[in-house]
Specification:
five-stranded mixed β-barrel; 22% strand; globular
């Protein structure tokens, strides 16, 4: 109405999924780019400026994996996406239908991008994909290349290399050895388990069971000293019984996984799980989520208490006006999903500095401490 908006372009997973609805119900949209057509965004802009309607919906599997990037993260932290799409076909997930099959990026391109990030001053590199453990299986080498990629990344000028996400059935001895032996790889692994009941896991089209997952966690902790684990869990999958939910609770009490995101099952349109019989009511799903969150609150409290009076390196992220303290993260805290460390310092600290902090107080999911001797790095 004010003449400031030259055109409206819709892109991403929503555009991929609801192209027809957007075209029919939202006439104000001038152009649509699906998930296989991100590289056509400039073409779409030109079409709109020329007064044309446009739709770009190339094959998802043909989407460009390389190209220049503009980082939106702070200067000291960056994501390195090593693959696109997913081929796991979990029963509750729509991602393969919206982003196509798993496609690994070439290692040379990844190393070039990582070097540019290191040269730009990035200190924390976060290696991500829907499943980083499958990296390389679809390339001509047809072998797991993640261990080799990590070795190469650890030769660059990063302080931390953080890993998201490792599927539990794809973790090899070689990978565990690399994680344990490379000091730059933070001893924090995000392994999405979703559940432990064998029947529920099979309904999700996921492998494993409670005994196998328990053994995996014990093995990882034994071979990687100081390991902190994060996982994702789904409660209320159609047909989940009280006994199966209790099995999940018992598993969490036994394994004491330090970090967990708990989600109520959501029947995503177009997924197999959305059509399963035995859909569970919202109140039951919420009750089960709250029970898990209460259990995990106790685990977090115990973990934080176990770090009292310990000195840990903290990556400073800024100053908190409310508390009058600096804040940051330890190796045990990933970006945006885990707690903070608030700390006092007699000398100034800049975002991106690593400083040693002695932990002195537990504040729920957060810790509070004091910077000790030594200069920021």
């Amino acid at each position: 109405e004010q003449g400031k908006l030259r055109g409206l372009i819709v892109t991403g997973c929503l555009a991929q999924r609801y192209r027809a609805e957007i075209e029919s119900d939202l006439p104000e949209v001038d152009a649509i780019c699906g998930t296989g057509s991100y590289e056509n965004i400039v073409d779409a802009v030109r079409d709109v400026l020329d007064g044309k309607k446009a739709v770009y919906m190339r094959d998802m599997a043909a989407a460009a994996l390389e190209g220049e990037r503009d980082r939106l993260t702070p200067s000291y932290t960056a994501f390195l996406k090593i693959a696109e799409g997913c081929s796991n076909r979990c029963g509750y997930c729509i991602i393969p239908k919206l982003r196509g099959p798993y496609r690994s990026r070439g290692m040379d391109a990844l190393l070039e991008e990582a070097k540019a990030l290191a040269d730009a001053g990035v200190k924390e590199l976060i290696v991500i994909a829907q499943d980083i453990t499958k990296y390389g299986l679809d390339l001509p080498e047809h072998k797991r290349l993640l261990p080799e990629l990590l070795r190469q990344l650890c030769q660059m000028d990063f302080t931390w290399v953080r890993l998201h996400y490792l599927y539990p059935d794809q973790i090899t001895d070689e990978l565990v050895d690399v994680i344990a032996q490379e000091p730059k790889i933070v001893k924090y692994l995000d392994i999405p388990l979703q559940h432990v009941s064998k029947r529920i896991l099979r309904a999700m089209h996921r492998p494993g069971d409670r005994d196998e997952l328990t053994a995996l966690i014990h093995m990882l902790r034994e071979r990687i000293p100081g390991l902190v684990l994060r996982t994702s869990l789904i409660v209320g999958l159609p047909g989940e019984t009280e006994e199966e939910f209790a099995e999940l609770c018992a598993f969490l009490q036994e394994t004491r996984i330090e970090r967990a995101g708990v989600f109520e099952f959501s029947p995503e349109e177009g997924t197999e799980a959305a059509e399963l019989p035995g859909q569970i009511d919202d109140d039951t799903k919420m009750r089960r989520r709250l029970i898990i969150e209460e259990l995990q609150s106790g685990v977090i409290d115990d973990y934080n208490l176990s770090r009292m009076h310990e000195t840990l390196d903290v990556l400073c992220e800024g100053w908190d006006n409310d508390s009058g303290l600096y804040f940051g993260r330890t190796y045990a805290d990933s970006v945006e999903v885990d707690g903070r460390v608030y700390f006092a310092s007699e000398t100034p600290v800049k975002p991106g500095d690593f400083v040693p902090v002695r932990m002195e107080n537990s504040l729920g999911a957060a810790l509070e401490g004091v910077r000790v001797g030594g200069s920021a790095s």
